[in-house]
Amino acid sequence: MATDPVFLAQLAANGLSVGLGYALAAIGLALIFGILGQVNFAHGELYMLAAFLLYWAMRALGLPYAVAGIAVIAAMAAAGALLAQVVIVPNLERGFESVVLGTLAVGIILQNAVRLGFGATPLDVSSPLESFSVDVGGVLFFGQRLLVCAAFLAAFAGLWSFLRFSEIGRAMRAMAQNPEACLMVGIDVRRVARWTGALAAALTGLAGVVISPLFDLYPNMGTEVVIKSFAIVIIGGMGNVLGTAIAGIALGLAESYAGGLGNAGIRDAIAFTVMIVMLLARPQGLFGRSVRV
Questions:
Q1: Which of 17, 39, 59, 238 is most exposed, with minimal Cβ within 10 Å?
Q2: Residue 123 pairs with which residues in a beta bridge?
Q3: Do residues 89 and 193 lie in contact, with contact meaning Cβ atoms separated by under 8 Å?
Q4: What pLDDT is attached to residue 291?
């Protein structure tokens, strides 16, 4: 069974979809660090908030999945801009710890607010693609996981185009390379910070919209996401978006093959084992020396 080509191909398909989901969930975290040099400890709670907003929009408002998803992504972009304005912008010239504590506080507030509003009982959100699958030579491709892959590819292409061809995108790249020079040439770093926060939260919201139908929803679900996202960002290179994508895909494939060919219990340990090895052997990550965005 373990050497069956179809079985190995199925593990590859599963691992690729999981890895692209990891990368999509982590890309917003990498973007904040790459451009602003700050770590958003509320990243996991933003993902969790997007998932619960999707649940609320579909159940309470009766919106179809696609419409609810678009509304949630827009709301998350606004929330990200607000988070940047309230927590990151006032602390840009202060110590690194100020933003860490501020975003950590926001994460705790969001987690408890969701627990108060929705309770602690796991919930689930449905998607029209859950029952859809494609059989290609015996390898099954499931609809929702295909949507995760498509969302990552669209998000990565859109982010690449935005950073390179838009005015604010070029300002964000300049901020990533030399913040002091940005001030000298008149770039509004506060505006850049707000745009970065909005874009990162929108990407995190997209991850919450397409990934949440695959799992149960509960208030501390963001903790697992942020821990795995940190591991991926560290492996890929702090702030390097391309490195984050490659690390996420590699991790998803490694976990899939470890679970399918070995012991499923070691899957969650793989990310942190690789992270520790990377910190010891190459602290800057796989692509730490390249441009961070």
A1: 59
A2: 217
A3: yes
A4: 41
Tell me how far apart the alpha carbons of residues 282 and 272 are, in angstroms, rounded to a whole number.
Answer: 15
- The encoded tokens of residue 73 equal 């992504």
Supply the DSSP string of 206-239, one letter for each residue: HHHHHHGGGS-B-TTHHHHHHHHHHHHHHHH-TT
DSSP 140: E
Q: Can you state the angle between helices 43-59 and 65-83, rounded to 10 degrees?
A: 140
Strand-pair partners of 139:
136
With CA atoms as reference, report the closest residue to 230 among 285, 156, 172.
285
Q: What is the pTM of this model?
A: 0.91
Nearest alpha-carbon partner for 41 in 241, 233, 270? 233
Low-confidence ranges of the chain (pLDDT < 50): 1, 290-293
Q: Are the C-beta atoms of 106 and 83 separated by less than 8 Å?
A: yes
